[in-house]
């Protein structure tokens, strides 16, 4: 039987464990049993500007649940692990979270490529995993998602909609909205980037556009001068990039400075203020698609945004923070159905998985519920563009591929 | 439009930076036969030193005033670290088996990376580097970006000064003598310890210039930028003939050009489209290294000053 540390005192200890910088989870004495929610995301290095949003989004959800005593008799805490956007590290973290019997659910990871290495570990342990940001279709719909959808892991859920929609939405907007006819497509060869750019290519060609050239870069590359020269001379009127902000912010800078006046269009991995900060004026006019609708337009998210800003967390809530908040809340609600009167049943993890599958509530990013594959039923997407040095939403909707 | 001139220029800019870093490897190797694997990190700290100076200067200061100060600050940091490394990490091991200082260098490289990662404010992600805003320039069909202007001025200038220094100055001649035969040089009254420190300091200076150039060119500096850059520069040094300062610069240029040409044009060869593209750049760099080691182990120019391995 899983016996959880019963505590009045660990409230203070949780602080060091989660790296939170202040003592807001001091509301730790609201319950007599502590449940840990694991978080896995890149917290340092590559991708950490977006990864930190996940950690702090989850942290705020836990703080709120403890403050409001959402689940009577249970105190929640966060255990945040850094996967550095490296799949192998993510897998080690998954093993670590699984072996901690206090962990009843995990939020993360950020990267689809990392998720592929974690899913099996969680499935074996029957531990629920909700990613706020994974978008690769095969994670929920199997390798042959285009022909025969089959859910590979019943413990895996996500609050972000898939690249099948995101890539198509981008292609539609590029062709019909921006009237671009010739695209150059570059990706970083990762699960997320390569998948996204492939779907963009297919949909763009289907619309009648032409893919005039393709190329790949390495994660961590900084010199794109050769590539930029190629793009400039290809006659492309738009560059689509499948990958993260770390490379694309440098790519767009070199592209514009080389004299190519075409916008760079990317996915949610680029949607962060860091992109504009690094690329400076050269980011102007660039576009991304991102999941959901703009957080600051959602009335339900007002408190969340205010809290996030008040705590001066680094990183950006805008991309995944609100989704991490909702993913964490889904786990908290599921735990609430499973843990009664401060007693954790022996098969708590399996019961939490079932409870998450059937969950349905109004989160801060919209309605939270999952379909038979573990995908979110919320298929909203938004195109953002850099206008006057800020990401501005230009179109919200959903895609209808094929 | 013909892209060849532009691609050649791209290769030259990239190669100039490799060359600047490679000088540090080759100077130190030429004099103490040590491959200083921490040199990539000295390049990184040079970039961070320059950034620090910019951050303490008042906001909105013109880059024309800031840049010299940044170069000075970056140089100071990089030279101090390079000289400190020599004094506290390598000198105690002089005379020890070759492997000992080599492993020390790798350890030092990791230590420096982690120090910056943990202690420098917000260095856990790439930090934005200030930019020059006056380009780009057009020469014929070639576009030269603002960040590259600094490189094409700094690299040949540094190289020329170094060449004069080594050839004509008293210290420079002492360096040549130490490189040829440290024991005899010492008997002739040359303070070899001082010469070794100077070699490390010059390496640090060139690394700081390269670090600043890197920041200007790519818009950010990060704690792990020294790893691949260091590896490529080491390749350049070996390519040109390690121990030979002209070889280091030549090796850098050759490496940069080879990378640019390979990534730009290999994909166009029928049947080779799988092997082209930007993601193959490091592959071609190291293939070139293997070829040179196979067919001309002494490097393109060979080592001119010493006959020892």
TrEMBL record, chain A:
Keywords: Signal. Residues 34-389 form the Leucine-binding protein domain. Belongs to the leucine-binding protein family. PANTHER family: AMINO ACID BINDING PROTEIN (PTHR47151:SF2), LEU/ILE/VAL-BINDING ABC TRANSPORTER SUBUNIT (PTHR47151). InterPro entries: Leu-bd, Peripla_BP_I. This is Branched chain amino acid ABC transporter substrate-binding protein. The keyword Signal applies. The keyword Signal applies.
From TrEMBL, chain B:
Gene3D superfamilies: ABC transporter involved in vitamin B12 uptake, BtuC. It comes from the Bacteria. One of its GO terms (biological process) is L-isoleucine import across plasma membrane. Keywords: Amino-acid transport, Cell inner membrane, Cell membrane, Membrane, Transmembrane, Transmembrane helix, Transport. SUPFAM superfamilies: ABC transporter involved in vitamin B12 uptake, BtuC (SSF81345). The chain crosses the membrane at residues 12-32, 39-57, 63-84, 96-117, 137-166, 195-215, 279-295. It is found in: Cell membrane. One of its GO terms (cellular component) is plasma membrane. Its main location: membrane. It holds the Pfam family BPD_transp_2. It is a multi-pass membrane protein. GO terms for molecular function: L-isoleucine transmembrane transporter activity; L-leucine transmembrane transporter activity; L-phenylalanine transmembrane transporter activity; L-valine transmembrane transporter activity. InterPro entries: ABC_BtuC-like, ABC_transp_permease, BCAA_transport_permease. Belongs to the binding-protein-dependent transport system permease family. LivHM subfamily. This is Branched-chain amino acid ABC transporter permease.
